[in-house]
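Structure request: PQ-loop repeat-containing protein 1, Bondarzewia mesenterica.
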Amino acid sequence: MFPSWLSILASIGMAVGPPLVYADQAVSIIRKKDSTGFSRDICAVLLFANITRCFFWLGNQFEFALLLQSLLMILAQLALLYICILNRPPHSPESIGTSTRPFSFWQWPTYTQHVEVLAGYIVCLTILTLIFGRVDLFISILGYVALGLESTLPIPQMISNFKHKTLYGFRSSTMLGWVGGDSFKTVYFFLQGSPLQFKVCAIFQLSIDFVIVAQRIFYGAAPPHAVLVEEDDLEQALALTEE
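Returned structure:
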């Protein structure tokens, strides 16, 4: 266990630190007016995971700092999602109508559609919790779903990096925040005696973080071909205008 004062500081860091990791990413997208390189699926994973974790807390009241972290993360990801949709690239699947996902999941054209799905998910979880909230198995499953979802957080970004062979648009500060934050929370979970779900999923998530670090070293952060083509087209258009 931590000493009492260190435990308080660690709890504050756990509650506030993870949501703040995405502040620099949001500022970068606003500055460039382009969300290319940042997988919006990250917002989906964090929103669904943290909503589920809030319901898990109702049946297994773990540290309040972790509940507060979830509430702050939900607010942060709703804001980041709005920024990503507002600044999505013109070649995105929802912009050109080429989504191959069932029901175009999480590639809808409007922010409202995303919020409506999240609201529907909350309603479903509320109904299930009212029915099965006193069943230990249900609460345990909720925990594994919440933490299992969160542990897949880096996977959409890892896949995006692999497809584009670059980490263009994905902030190094976000990557380092993942590695540092997940390392800290893994240690925190073990020292605080958090539920097993937290420990197992934290180790898995940290391992994916290190894969992304390796991708950053191997691929670099040069603009992908699609972005270069758009920049060339823009330069040609400006040249024609000057003529």
